[in-house]
Design a protein that fits this description.
There is one protein chain. This protein has 271 residues and is α/β, with parallel strands linked by helices. The chain has one domain (9-261): Rossmann fold, CATH 3.40.50.720. It is built from 7 helices and 7 strands. A 7-stranded parallel sheet has the order 3-2-1-4-5-6-7, sandwiched between helices. α1 packs across α7 (230-241). The chain binds NADP nicotinamide-adenine-dinucleotide phosphate (NAP). NADP nicotinamide-adenine-dinucleotide phosphate (NAP) is lined by residues 13-14, 16-20, 38-41, 44, 71-73, 98-101, 121, 152, 154, 199, 201-202, 204-207. It holds the Pfam family adh_short_C2. It comes from [Candida] anglica. Keywords: NADP, Oxidoreductase. InterPro entries: NAD(P)-bd_dom_sf (IPR036291), SDR_fam (IPR002347), Sec_Metab_Biosynth_SDR (IPR052178).
């Protein structure tokens, strides 16, 4: 069996650093024809494109990298991003809705606006992205090799306990995992598979603050006694985007060493 994305065209939101960049790199290394990345900052887009171009060149791959800055939490920006992407690609096979944000604070100090902001990016923008790109995905998918939507959810969608007061984040990730299952039923007949990834803790800009405080205990509690590394998320992405996984639709795949089975460190004592 061959696990690859040979000749595929992909869009990865939040593809300029962290898990999104890991996903984009995996697609480049496993044969993608074109990988489109986006994030808010133009400089981050340029740097990530330069990195991915170098990865392609260094590994004898011919992927074209397209980087377009956009704030996808803003409806108009996302619509413009969709138009710009549509003008540059001839087909779309893979959408990785990865961009996300978090906010942690005790209940009494937790701004309602922070919850709203997190939900806007982690849920509404994911929905909006899927809505915009679905017609293109439907054109390129086949019964033997459907198009793929991967939603970057989180182990937080499976474990209701959290150590840092990330109320909106937990709700957002449970929400998108559920939305993914709903869309899997609806889009399956149109040859689009929708699956969610539920990573545990991977060191990135987003998780570093939490890991500084809870990193050691998270490693101790994890059945594999370590945090996630790049190869862990890349393996899951390539598996779920390859032809042999054509019959896997509507799952939420933990990529967490089994941490969802044992939960998170204790919740904050301060409310
Ligand atoms: N790291 C973990 O342990 C972990 C665990 C479970 C799930 N996840 C999920 O994985 C995804 C990626 O997280 P990460 O840890 O890699 O975070 P990260 O390092 O903070 O990366 C987030 C990416 O999203 C982009 N982004 C943020 N807001 C955006 C917006 N409004 N419009 C467009 N792009 C935006 C960022 O670039 P700009 O700042 O330039 O916009 C960046 O490229 C998130 O959905 C997160 O919830 C992470």
């Amino acid at each position: 069996m061959e696990f690859n994305v040979n000749g595929k065209v992909a869009v990865v939101t939040g593809g300029t650093r962290g898990l999104g960049l890991d996903c984009a790199e995996a697609l480049v290394l496993h044969g993608a024809k074109t990988v489109v990345i986006t994030s808010r900052k133009a400089k981050a887009c340029e740097e990530a494109k330069a990195y991915l171009d170098k990865v392609a060149k260094g590994n004898g791959k011919s992927a074209t990298i397209i980087a377009i800055p956009a704030d996808i939490a803003k409806d108009q920006d996302l619509e413009q991003f969709f138009k710009d992407v549509s003008a540059k690609i001839d087909r779309l096979d893979i959408l990785i809705a990865n961009a996300g944000a978090s906010w942690g604070a005790p209940l009494s100090e937790h701004p309602v606006s922070a919850v709203r902001k997190v939900l806007d990016l982690n849920v509404v923008a994911v929905f909006h992205c899927i809505k915009l790109f679905t017609p293109l995905l439907a054109e390129s998918g086949s019964a033997e090799d459907p198009s793929r939507i991967l939603i970057m959810s989180s182990v937080a969608s499976l474990v209701p306990q959290d150590a840092a007061g990330t109320y909106g984040y937990l709700a957002s990730k449970a929400g998108v995992s559920h939305m993914g299952k709903n869309l899997a039923i609806q889009l399956g007949p149109s040859n689009i598979n929708v699956n969610s990834l539920a990573p545990g803790f991977f060191p990135t800009k987003m998780s570093n603050g939490l890991l500084e405080v809870f990193g050691e205990v998270m490693v101790e509690m994890n059945p594999k006694r370590r945090l996630g590394v790049k190869a862990d998320i890349q393996a899951a992405v390539i598996f779920l985007c390859s032809k042999p996984s054509a019959y896997i639709n509507g799952i939420v795949l933990p990529v967490d060493g089994g941490s969802h089975l044992v939960g998170s460190p204790s919740p904050p004592s301060k409310i």
